[in-house]
Structure formats: C-alpha cells, structure tokens
Write a structure and sequence with these properties.
The structure holds 2 protein chains of 2 kinds. Chain A is of the alpha/beta class. Chain A has helices spanning 24-38, 72-82, 94-100, 102-110, 151-154, 160-165, 181-199, 215-218, 222-236, and strands spanning 44-48, 63-66, 87-93, 116-121, 170-177, 205-211, 240-243. The longest helix of chain A has 19 residues, at 181-199. Chain A starts with 23 loop residues before the first helix and ends with a strand. By secondary structure, chain B is α/β, with parallel strands linked by helices. Chain B folds into 2 domains: 4-245, Rossmann fold (3-Layer(aba) Sandwich); 250-368, Rossmann fold (3-Layer(aba) Sandwich). The model of chain B is unreliable at 1-5 (pLDDT under 50). The chains are: A alpha/beta, B alpha/beta. Strand 2 (63-66) of chain A pairs parallel with strand 9 (217-218) of chain B, so a sheet runs across the interface.
Chain lengths: 244, 369
C-alpha cells in the first residue's frame, strides 16, 4: 500500500492538550514539516512562550526552551548571536508578543536579529481565561471586555505586522490565517519562507503572523470560529505579504 | 593608555585600572563568550569596555534595549552552553530579577555584576551596599538562591570574576558579584592573569540542536502534582552543597579581640583601617570579612561568638547584613550596627568612635579598677 500522508518526524506522536478546534496544533505541524523539509532538526533551537503553547516542546521534537512572558526575542538574540550557525525561532502569542513583549520584538527587529518569529494571533488571552488581548477586535466580548471591546478606554486592536513592516531590520513580514485548507497551505509557504531566509543567512528578522482560531474563548463552535477569522478578523488584520 | 591596559595578558604585569574595566577584562580572561548590558551609572565603563574588547576577541557584545532584555539575552546564550554575563547597578538589577528567577528555575549558569548605588527608587549614584537583601535572598520570586561574592579591592574583584564563572558552571546557578560605586570607579594596581578553570561538569543539557541525540529542553515549568516540589528539593540540595563547600571569609586580628567588626566590600576596607588605629590605641578589636555573602560565613561567626564579647556590623545600608550576623551569633553575644544608608560612606574616625564606645583600651583598664 502506498503511503500518501504521514506525520512528519519532528512532530511527536502524541495527543496535545489544546482545546478542540484550536489552531496551535496546525501551526505546530507546519513548523515541524518545515524543519524536516529543510533538514535542519539537528541545528534548530525553538522558544516556547508563556501562554497556551508553553508545552510546545512536548509536541515538537527539537531542542527547546521555555522563557519568561514576552521575552522570546531577547532570548533568541542571546542564542543566535552566540550561535550564528543555529536556526533560532520563537513561537509567540498575542499576549506574549503584542502586549508584554512589545519592547523585545520591536528591538529584535530594530537590531535586524537573524531569527524567525511565528506570531499566533487569536485575538484573546487563551491560557488565563479569555481576557482581552491587544489584538482583540472592537466589539469583541472577552472576560475583561464584557460589553465588547470599546475603543474608549480599551483602545484599538494592535496591528503588529504593519508596525513591524516599518522597521528596516524586519526583512520579511507576512500575515496568514488557519481558516481553511487553502489558508493553511499559504501559511505553510510563509513559515517555510521565513525559515529559509534564516537558513540562507538573510540579514534581518522574519515574522509570520498567523490568525488562529480560539473557539473556546470566542464562545463558538470550531467551524464558526474558522468563519469568524475570514469574516471578521481579516477585516482588521488583512492577509498578505507586508514586506519582503 | 587604553591599548596598554589590555596588552597586559602576559602574566603578572601590574596595571592601573578602575574596577569596572578591570572586572570586564577579567571576565574576558575567564572565557566570557557573550556580554549583554544596558547603560546605567556607576557601571558604564563595563559596557563601554566590553563594546570594544568583545568584538576584538571575536566574542559577542550587545547593548540591549533594557535590563529585562539583557538578562534574557544572558538566559538565551547560557541555554546554549555559553559563558555569559551582564552588569548593571541597583535599579537595573531590580528589573533583572524576573530573569534571575527563571535562570534559577531552569538551572542555567550566569554571572551578574551589580555595581550598587543608593536607593530606594532612582536614589542616587553614590556607592551603597543596600542591595544585600535582594542579592542574598534570591531577589525574584520563588525559593531560590544566588551565590553572592563581595570583593573589597579591585584585585579581589578581578579574582572574583573567574571564580564567578566557575561557580556558575559547577552549580548551574547565577553568581552575583556585588560591588559598589567606589569599587567600580576606583583605580588600583591589578594583576590580570588567566586562571586555570575548576573541573567543570559537561554541559550535556545545553541547547545545541538535537543532532543525533534526543531533544534537550530547558524549562522552569513543572505542572504535574509534586513535580515542582521535587524540583525545588533538588535545588535546595544543591544550595546545601554550596553552603558546605564555597564559604570564603577573611579573619583579621581576631585572636584576642573583644570587639569583632563584621563588614564586607568597601566598608571592610574602611573598617580595617579603623581596626589598625584601634589596635595602636590598645583596643582589642578584630574584623571578620565575608567574601561570599551567600553562602554567609555562619560557622566562622558562630565560632567567634563563643569566644568574643561583642559584634559590630558596619555596612553602607540601614542594616541588612547585620541580620545574617545576628542569625550566626544566635543570641550568644550582643550584635550592634553602624549603618550608613543612601550613599553615605563611613569614615575611619566614625568607626573608631563607635569602637571606643564599645571597649576600653587594655592599658587603661587597671587605672580604672
């Protein structure tokens, strides 16, 4: 019998702790596939964030570290500067990267650190119980915006990729989504490109923003969550290559 | 000439250097692969020196966007098995406490130099010893310790650097070198030599890429019930070994001393002069100078408490180390404090006055009785 699809070796054969319909599992698989396709498992170091993906090292079979909330780009800087031959990537959520870690991501890009950043934007703080994230869209109900996010007092959704694209040290910035098979294929292409740039020694930071479903804290079934990305999130966070 | 200063690697040439630059060169000699730092007075000479010397050596220097980032860059470099350090002064060290706690949890080696200044808050830029509690009690969240070295001369500061990197690697801990504004700025003749390293354990835990081996994970999160308690017990067992094996302290003029002054760092230098003056005037006074502030020389002080009458802690704070002296003396003798907070530096005369209040010169005792 011919095998037409198999689990990629760098993705561990186990059940994840993620909620049904969560996008992290898909994003993990795309990263693991990329690592195997590029043949870089033996020189890749990954950084897991504080947040739902903190146990990412239980699912992706490469050397990994788990670090303080928001600090992955600083940790990645320390790793890559001392190990320029290694492939260093951080995997960060919207609380990690767009709230507590804005200084670290901006300055890592500003210094043109040769690292790859996978930014998972699900418009909500997942692990702590569905509170407002900087990327929560206007009107979105969360644990800390019970009336829906109001621009007065709660501010506007933060468009990280647009900000990053302004920085000369960020050489590749693309926003994709996990809202369906075609979108997932595009996300894979973007993630692979971001890793390839680092493998080639491109002089700067690459960031792929991934709009990812959180059915649990969006309070909707998984299929509806996919639709919500396409119908609501992409209005605020338009897909496409912003730079590079 | 700056060029001359580091051309002194040929052994045992004495050069005149300020503490900040001397410790930086000593770190390079100790094999520091990467330095990360953010400017803050009174330690800016370290960052500036490293920005020039590390690239010369083909090593890594990064000026970070904050102390938070600096300590996390240290975390990243250390996780890959490199020798790495940062330096700062009190307010910046406060910002680093989060990272130091994570380093402790993940058992990563690191060297952190704190050239202390007056606090709290922005305080001032005068020399101080007010970060003793923060350094010796861990400083960040959770049950952990850092090894703390308190040198009192520029030469000792230099010698502390190779020791700090070795201790960090042996115990997989953060080692804090606790200096102050005087020691950082003061110029003294020093000998800069490459020291033989201790026998160091292999860094088989380091993240180097899982090439032909299973993945390595560096972490501080332990969720399963009982697992974090187990991890903490392992850390504590390690700290007990440090307490058993690594205490360093100097005992000066202790033999017949009736007053024992306890002081560290720059304060101990001033006390030493006061002890010499007191001796000239016939007063039996001695000095115990802790060099490791954690582990603190509990046994040495406890033993002294059985023989001597009175203890005086002298420090440039409102009284922090004095609590460790009290713990060591454990009620066997009175423990007094002479503290100068907020950047105040005690003079020899004021310490001598304090000593005079506490003891009677031996040659005057008979006249009294």
């Amino acid at each position: 019998m011919k095998t037409v699809f198999a689990r990629t070796p760098s993705l561990k054969d186990c059940t994840t702790h993620y909620c049904p319909g969560c996008g992290h599992g898909i994003a993990h698989r795309l990263i693991a596939e990329t690592i195997d396709e590029l043949g870089i498992r033996g020189r890749t170091i990954g950084i897991a964030p504080v947040g739902c993906a903190v146990l990412m090292y239980d699912y992706i079979d490469v050397d990994m570290v788990e670090v303080a909330h928001g600090r992955p780009p600083a940790v990645a800087t320390g790793m890559k500067r001392t190990n320029p031959d290694k492939i260093v990537f951080s995997y960060q959520g919207d609380g990690d990267l767009a709230a507590i870690g804005t200084a670290e991501i901006i300055h890592a890009a500003h210094r043109a650190e040769q690292i790859t950043v996978i930014f998972i934007n699900n418009a909500v703080f997942g692990m702590t119980g569905g509170q407002m994230a900087p990327t929560t869209i206007l009107g979105q109900v969360t644990a800390t915006t019970p009336q829906g996010r109001n621009r007065t007092g709660e501010g506007y959704p933060l468009q990280v990729s647009e900000i990053m694209a302004l920085l000369p040290g960020a050489i590749y910035v693309e926003r994709c989504a996990l809202s369906g098979p075609a979108a997932v294929r595009n996300t894979k292409k973007a993630i692979k490109h971001a890793f390839e740039l680092q493998v080639e020694g491109a002089e700067g930071l690459s960031l792929v923003e991934v709009l990812s479903p959180c059915p649990t804290y969006w309070r909707m079934p998984p299929a509806k969550a996919m639709e919500w990305i396409e119908n609501e999130m992409t209005k605020v966070f338009p897909l496409g290559r912003l730079k590079g | 000439m700056i060029e001359k200063r580091h051309a002194c690697n040929a052994a045992s040439e004495r050069v005149l250097m300020c503490g900040n630059e001397a410790l930086a060169e000593a770190a390079i000699l100790a094999g520091c692969d990467a330095y990360f730092g953010y400017p803050i007075t009174p330690q800016n000479e370290i960052t500036a020196y490293m920005s020039r010397r590390m690239p010369e050596e083909g090593r890594v220097f990064v000026q970070s966007e904050s102390e938070l980032a600096a300590i996390n860059m240290v975390f990243g470099a250390s996780a890959t098995g490199k020798r790495t350090m940062t330096s700062s002064s009190s307010p910046g060290i406060s910002l680093m406490q989060e990272g130091i706690s994570y380093l402790a949890g993940a058992e990563l080696p690191a060297v952190v130099v704190n050239v202390m200044r007056g606090g709290p808050g922005l305080g001032n830029i005068a020399p101080s010893q007010a970060d003793y509690f923060q350094a010796t009690r861990g400083g960040g969240h959770g049950d952990y310790r850092t090894i703390v070295l308190g040198p009192s001369t520029v030469q000792e500061l230099v010698d502390c650097m190779s020791l700090a990197f070795d201790l960090a690697d042996v115990y997989r801990m953060t080692v804090v070198v606790l200096a102050d504004g005087i020691l950082g700025q003061m110029m003294e003749p020093v000998v800069l030599e490459k020291k033989p390293r201790r026998k160091l354990p292999p860094k088989d835990w380091a993240l180097t890429g899982a090439k032909e081996r299973e993945q390595n994970i560096v972490r501080s999160l332990w969720l399963p019930e009982g697992r974090l308690e187990e991890h903490n017990r392992k850390l504590q067992a390690k700290y007990e070994q440090v307490q058993k094996n690594e205490v360093l302290c100097e005992q000066y003029e202790l033999e017949d001393a009736e007053v024992v002054v306890v002081a560290y760092g720059v304060a101990a230098r001033i006390v030493r002069s006061a002890v010499n003056r007191a001796r000239q005037e016939g007063m039996p006074v001695g000095l115990i100078r802790p060099i490791t502030l954690w582990p603190f020389p509990m046994e040495q002080i406890s033993k002294a408490a059985e023989e001597f009458r009175l203890f005086l802690a002298v420090e440039m704070s409102s009284g922090q180390m004095v609590e460790d002296v009290q713990l060591a003396v454990a009620g066997k003798a009175p423990v007094l404090l002479h503290g100068r907070p907020g950047g105040g530096v005690p003079t020899v005369d004021e310490i001598l006055d304090k000593i005079k209040q506490l003891t009677i010169p031996k040659n005057k005792r008979k006249m009294k009785s």
